Amino acid sequence: MAETSAPHAYFTPLDGAEFIVLTTYRRTGAAVPTTVWFAEAGGKLYVTTGAQAGKAKRLRANPSVLVAPSDQVGNVQGPALQGHARVLEPHEEAPAIAALQQKYGAAFTNLTAQMDAAQPTRGRIYIVVTP
Predict the structure, then answer these.
(1) What pLDDT, in 10s, does the model give residues 31-48?
(2) Quick one: a GO cellular component term (predicted)?
C-alpha cells in the first residue's frame, strides 16, 4: 500500500515552488546546477529545454539528478531530492506539456513559442524526473 502512494509524495518538498535547481553531472562527476521551470504530475516532474542544452547532454550520459526548490536565480530554498531523468520521446510529451501549461499558463506558451522560433524543428525537448 505505501508503495503506490510513495512516488506521489516523494516530490512534496517542491510544492509551491515556481523553480527548481536541477543538478546534472558531467562525465567527470562534477555537479552542474541549473535553475528551471518544472511541473509535477502523477509523481513525476517535467521540464522543457533545448535539445542541445548542456543539461540535456549531461543527463543522457548520466541520468542521476538532484532537484531542489529554488527562487528564480537559483537560491535553493529546501531539501535536494535524488531523481532519475530521461528525455521523453515525442509520443510521451503530452503529459509534460499539459502539466507545464497548467502551472505556468500564458507564460509557458510565450516561452515555448520563443524557444521554438529560435531553434530548429525538434529543438525543444521534454525531460521527466522520477524518484
Answers:
(1) 999 999 999 999 999 999
(2) cytosol
Could you give the maximum distance between any two Cα atoms of the chain, in Å? 47
50-68 pLDDT, tens per residue?
888 999 999 999 999 999 9
What's the rounded Cα separation, in Å, for the pair 20 and 56?
A: 16
Domain boundaries, the chain: 2-130
Residue whose C-alpha is closest to residue 80's, from 8, 129, 28, 29 = 129
**In CATH, 2-130 is 2.30.110.10:** yes
Least Cα distance to 66 among 21, 3, 109, 6 occurs for 21
Backbone angles phi, psi at 75, to 5 degrees: -75, 115
C-alpha distances in Å from residue 20, one per residue of 12, 56, 110, 129 = 13, 16, 20, 12
Q: Strand 64-70 vs strand 124-130: parallel, antiparallel, or unpaired?
A: unpaired
| Cα dihedral: 66, 72, 76, 77 (round 10) | -120
- pLDDT score of 6: 52
pTM score over 0.85: yes
